[in-house]
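Figure 6 in text form: structure in, sequence out.
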């Protein structure tokens, strides 16, 4: 059976775009008059990613709001039911 290269092409594309945007961001911030360039920084109340501050409380709120839409049981192509991630965490 022939594998489709679409997934690997998308992964390579995302990798190239993220590396390119990281380099462009760092060069723009370090050569400009703005504060120091911070690509990723973890703090007590959240983390900063490309000057975007993401708070842990906001992530927890979004998770709790969307938890009811996430199914408890998922099915795969095999004949058995997968309950959560317990079968994958060995």
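Output sequence:
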């Amino acid at each position: 059976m022939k594998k489709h290269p679409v997934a690997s092409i998308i992964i390579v594309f995302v990798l190239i775009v993220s590396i390119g945007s990281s380099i462009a961001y760092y060069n723009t911030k370090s050569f400009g008059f703005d504060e120091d360039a911070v690509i990723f920084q973890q703090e007590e109340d959240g983390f900063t990613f490309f000057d975007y501050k993401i708070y842990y409380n906001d992530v927890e709120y979004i998770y709790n709001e969307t938890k009811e839409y996430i199914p408890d049981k998922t099915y795969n192509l095999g004949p058995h039911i997968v309950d959560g991630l317990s079968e994958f965490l060995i």
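Caption detail: The longest strand covers residues 46-49.
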